[in-house]
Amino acid sequence: MCENVVLRGADREHLDWPHWALKHLYAPAGIMVGKFWHGEHATGRHGHPLPVPPLTFLSLRPAVRPRDPRFLTATPGLADTIATVDDDGRDLLAAITGTPTNLRNAAAGWPAVKAWAAQHLSQDTP
Question: Chain-wide mean pLDDT for the chain?
């Protein structure tokens, strides 16, 4: 089961930074974040072509610990996190924004997330 966020009018380059930030924010809760762009041509692990996305979107889903670390070879620290994660229910955004988050105020914390990301980009820039 995935939750998908469509980004109308966006291309691949528009996904890089949000994808990086979201995967680093949510890996400690066992959430995988994927990026797919309109017209992307890719092949699956068995060499078969994957469906071409009709829209650009980010996809979020629960991690599958035995399988998903292979998607994170460029970020071995995140691969290790995903391989061993146990969601403890903590508010991951609150650690960055300084206030508990909910659907009403999550967007208001985005400037704090941007500042947090700017400090961490040198770890593995997208």
Answer: 86
**pLDDT at residue 114, as a whole number:** 79
One-letter-per-residue 3-state SS of the chain:
CCEEEECCCCCHHHHHHHHHHHHHHHHHHCEEEEEECCCCCCECCCCCECCCCCCCEEEEEECCCCCHHHHHCCCHHHHHHHHHCCCCCCCCCHHHHCCCCCCCCCHHHHHHHHHHHHHHHHHCCC
pLDDT the model gives residue 97: 78
Look up residue 56 and give its amino acid: T
Q: What CA–CA distance (Å, rounded) separates 54 from 40?
A: 9
Give CA–CA dist 37/18, Å, rounded.
Answer: 13
End-to-end CA distance of the chain: 26
In Å, the largest CA–CA distance within the chain is 46
pLDDT of residue 106: 65
